[in-house]
Amino acid sequence: MAYRIAVLPGDGIGTEVVPQAIRVLDKIAEKYGHQFEYNQGLIGGAAIDATGHPLPEETLGLCYNSDAVLLGAIGGPKWDNLPTHLRPEVGALLPLRKELGLYANIRPCRMYSALADASTLKKEVLEGTDMVVIRELTGGMYFGPKGRETVDGVERAWDTMLYSTPEIERIVRLAFEAARKRTRKEVCSVDKANVLEASRLWRETAIRVAADYPDVTLTHMYVDNAAMQLVRNPRQFDVVVTENTFGDILTDQASMLSASLGMLPSASIGGNVALYEPAHGSAPDIAGQKKANPLATILSTAMMLEYSFNLVTEARAIEDAVEKVLSKGFRTGDIMEAGKTLVNTEEMTDRVLEELA
Ligand code: IPM
Ligand code: MN
């Protein structure tokens, strides 16, 4: 089959890891007889520099006309002080998610046994961790009413955590469906219902939706407690569902269960065209030094093959190849430990390609 993939490398290490993921896709195409057609688009700072806008119409059009989107990362110090609507994060990534209707961000987080000692967390705590966080992606404080004003000489600013029942219902449903496909069939809904009104609606809605899924167990947890439980005993989680901001924060934290943010892939789904991107950012501090870990992006393409193209065998092949490379001791800087072999971005991909061959 032929698939059209919009490729948006973006900024910083995004431009280094995306070409590596494409090498992996090319290998899959060759091995399993598929055709991937790549069309590059500009986004973020790169788009500002070239066109004056972080999300050009052309890029959006390209995404609409593709079967899936592969995104690297966006942003950097050069564009941090632009007016809000032009900043890469708020001017490009958020509208892209909204325009494409990607209300669900899926971030699987598991412990790789080869990386048990690479994490800052104890091996005994991590052992057996295999969870997925489902983050609501087009609502909450990111998109609610916001503003800034000066009253009596005092400046103030606000962002509003706004959720409607249909928005909560669809994401919670998606979490229940995901849990159904897993062994434990457990959903933990994370909120702050002891304080926030939006969380009270969230919890009521989750309880109502749960009635349609008698085979799935629903529990609730306050977000502060969830942050603590993630490092105290991550094994307790199966599927976690939460609102946008909580999910943003908790998934950075959860990435350490896989030893590094450089290991965490993500899929943003819900619309006609899904978007795949590593959970990490553009990492200006290491950009251009060939140090970036390409595995989060490579694993994101595995999610693309599975979720968008239903190529499950191919997806598993990539994931297995990554595991083998790690167990052979190859490491980028972020997961490096004594006694292992340090490789750069491209060499790490070379190793993955070898395993796929
Ligand atoms: C993420 C990122 C983005 C977010 C930023 C870059 C806008 O941190 O995908 O987690 O906050 O959603
Ligand atoms: Mn984030």
TrEMBL record:
Cofactor: Mg(2+); Mn(2+)
Annotated site (Important for catalysis): Y142, K192
Positions with a binding annotation for Mg(2+): D224, D248, D252
Assigned keywords, A-Z: Amino-acid biosynthesis, Branched-chain amino acid biosynthesis, Cytoplasm, Leucine biosynthesis, Magnesium, Manganese, Metal-binding, NAD, Oxidoreductase
Pfam families in the record: Iso_dh (PF00180)
Catalytic activity of the protein: (2R,3S)-3-isopropylmalate + NAD(+) = 4-methyl-2-oxopentanoate + CO2 + NADH
Gene Ontology cellular component annotations, sorted alphabetically: cytosol
Binding site for substrate: R97, R107, R135, D224
Cofactor note: Binds 1 Mg(2+) or Mn(2+) ion per subunit.
List of residues binding NAD(+): 76-89, 281-293
SMART domains tied to this protein: Iso_dh
Main subcellular localisation: cytoplasm
Broad enzyme group: oxidoreductase
Domain Isopropylmalate dehydrogenase-like positions: 4-352
Molecular function terms, GO-annotated: 3-isopropylmalate dehydrogenase activity; metal ion binding
Pathway: Amino-acid biosynthesis; L-leucine biosynthesis; L-leucine from 3-methyl-2-oxobutanoate: step 3/4
Subcellular compartments: Cytoplasm
Biological processes, Gene Ontology terms: L-leucine biosynthetic process
Official protein name in the record: 3-isopropylmalate dehydrogenase
Gene that this polypeptide is encoded by: leuB
